[in-house]
Amino acid sequence: MKKRCAVTIERFEELLDQYGWDLASWPEALRRDANVLIAQDAQAAELLRSLRSVEDFLADDPLPMGKHKAIDDIFAAIEAEENKQLDASVAASAAESLSSLAIDNRPRSRAHLAMTSAAPTGESPVRKTYPTQFAKSPVHSALTLDSAKYSGRANGALHIVGRRMFSGVGMAVCVLAGFVFGVMMTVQEGQHVTAQAGEIELLDLVENHLYAVDPMTANQGSGQSKNQGVVPPGFSEIRPAQGEQPQ
Amino acid sequence: MSVGLRGAVSTSSDTSEIVSANEVLNDLDDNSLVARMVQGEKRAYRVIVERYYRGIIGIARRMGLTGGDAEDVAQDVFVRVWLHRDKWRADGGATFKTWLYRVAMNRVIDIKRKPQFVDGAELDEVPDGAMSAVDRLAQHQEFKRLRAAIKKLSDQQQIAINLFYDRELSNQEAASIMGVSVNAMESLLKRARKRLREELKTV
What letter would DSSP give residue A26? Predict the structure, then answer.
């Protein structure tokens, strides 16, 4: 007796799309029903056979094993890329050092030549140097322009002093020096005024003393004084002591 | 003479050390190898390349690239991965394998979108010395028919089909490479199979 199919050909196609073309990956109950259909329906069997061959083609891997040459090529390409990146970074650092040279053109060491040179540092008696494109001409174009404007080495100390004078430190030194100078002048002026005041007082005292002496010499008879008869107020009471002779 | 002898002995011992070190590396899992790769260890990366080179070439060929182009893609991918190894994040949600395949897929798509790209699926032959000439011809015809049908699928469907039938990949990994969930991947596969089945009837 022929077993009744639980799935139609349309349902079988849907299940093939859903679970794939390998019945081994289907759920158990569905696989049983599908096997019944395949056994009874030639169209379903042919469909499954063609799709399985497609699946085999898709899963087939025609690549032979042992492609070590290709893997060697990959690592050679990696080395080349790394060398390229290294060269780029060296070029960037060299350009940076050259730009600093353009600002500061004081004589410097030859360390930058050693950095870009591939000179061997072993025990060989003869050291070779392989100047690179950066060591070949360390003079940058910007450096040439700035060197035309500045002649630092030619002017020497004058150039350095001139730059210092316009610096902040120079300004501070000038202000401090001016302050000190001002203080000194003020003190000197004060001393001068004080001395003048003392001198005036002394002169007044001397002069008044002479005025006070004149009337006494006039009264003693012999000489006439130009101040004779003129007694300044307040001085009339000043009298020399008994026996004291005016000079 | 003694120097030469010592040199020969030391070279021999160095070679045996390298061989044993490579054996140790071959036993490591992907995570350990990738950690060493990130540190700049090229021998560890060589093990990774040897492990996945065939898979990447296979994906590129299934996507329609010729042998030369597929090898170029593989080389380009592995060089890029090495140069950008510091960008790899272990906690990024993907395994290194799926990340590598995703990079390769994107590279293949970029090449296929170039105007000068020539689909080389029909140029490739599958050498098999054990088959007769008639069988080889029949297989070649079947292969061409299949490729012609796959070319009619959408890009997403082609990728899904090619990743799903890659023996190196699980369903979860294939979904991860495409950046979709497993359910979405299965839905995509269902539509791709249906379309491919219909196209095969007409081709």
Answer: S
